[in-house]
Amino acid sequence: MGKPKSHSSKAKKLAKKKDITSSSPNYNIDELLEKASGLLDECQFELAEKFCQRALEMSSDHPQALEMSANLLLEQGEVEKAQHCLGRAITVQPESGHTKYMTAAQLFSGVESRDLYCKGVQLLVAGTAAADSDTAAQLSTAYVALGELYMSDLCDAPEAETETARFISLAIEADGTNSEAWQAEASYKLILGDVEGAKTSISRSLELWLPQHTAFLEKGEGMETSLSYNSRLATVKVLLDLEMFDEATHICDALVEEDDEVVAPWYLLGWLNYLREDQDYWGNVRHYLARAQQVQVMNPTDDDEMVQHIGEILAEVGGEDTQPEPPVDLDLNEGDHEKAELIANILDKEKEESDSEDKMES
Asked: For residue 89, how many C-alpha atoms fall within 13 Å in the half-sphere facing its CB?
């Protein structure tokens, strides 16, 4: 039998463990959150979560720790948990910190979303100078979101038209270089039936980013856009409503180049070629929509209406391999050996197909 361990050996182990703990960095909450924020920016979510969790262990109602936890949860797709963290942060510190309101507003809809944005705007204006460029950009973005709410969730409200116009005007006034503000104006004018006005607004929006982005992609010059992938997809949809197909194609091509495993740009390329109402483009329609179906298999979208529409268009224009072969002239003139050989090959092929069918039946 082995010699039993003494109490002194256990004590040594505990002392050793204590030494290791005491030698670890002793961060305060602000330092922990600063570390977590840096790791979050670097997309090191698991490490960021550990620092954030440690901060919450030290103070479970720390508003900044709660807000950062919400951001981490959103990166992981945990929307309900993120809503809970943001709600708690708002309860703990309701009259300061606009960003938690702006983030929470994106997780809700309708009146709840509107009220959260409005409170965020109130705190943002009260806390900083509106002339600051970063503040102006944030204000403009919030006003755009409010305008879009009145064009969607709140479109049946009696004040919808006037509030949409007011918020879009405020967005452009706050930051005239915000392309999404001009795009929102284009969408609003489309709703009003002002097609030419909408074209003017969307052209202004494109001028603010598309030439520079194109130069960056093609020559390594200019500047890569900061607009999200989904935001540019929304731009394409506005362009299709305005029948600005060349501009829409240009943006879709760049989106596919950026990430060709998303169904939406392939679908939009097929749809815009269909909207040209020219059967010369149907080959393009078939190609892009067939590709959209392939991507759907590998990386499914949850947009069931889009998937259904792809099938409907392909049913109308035919699949890529469903083009009928032109009929062969089987009239044989004397001495035409080349045509005789062609007819013989056709007859042989038909016989092989017939024999194959007979075998399957037997």
From this structure: 26
In contact, 85 and 69? CB cutoff 8 Å:
yes
Secondary structure (DSSP) of 120-179: HHHHHHHHS-TTSHHHHHHHHHHHHHHHHHHTTTTTTSTTHHHHHHHHHHHHHHH-TT-H
Long-range Cβ contact pairs of 316-322 (< 8 A, separation 24 or more) = 317/274, 317/282, 317/285, 317/286, 318/282, 318/286, 319/286, 319/290, 320/286, 320/287, 320/290
Task: Kindly report, residue by residue over 44-86, the tens digit of the pLDDT.
Answer: 888 888 898 898 889 889 999 999 999 999 998 999 999 999 9
Find out whether 167 and 186 touch, Cβ atoms under 8 Å: no
12, 107, 239 from 190: Cα distances, Å? 77, 27, 11
Distance CA 123, CA 94 (A): 10
* 3 state SS of 271: helix
Distance CA 275, CA 288 (A): 13
Q: How far apart are CA 239 and CA 202, in angstroms?
A: 8
CB 67 within 8 A of CB 86: yes
DSSP secondary structure code for residue 244 in this structure? -
* C-beta of residue 73 within 8 angstroms of C-beta of residue 66: no
Q: And the tokens for 180? A: 């999404």
- What is the identity of the amino acid at 11? A
Question: What pTM, to 2 d.p., does this model score?
Answer: 0.77
Residue 250 exposed, middle or buried by CB count within 10 Å (0-12, 13-18, 19+): middle
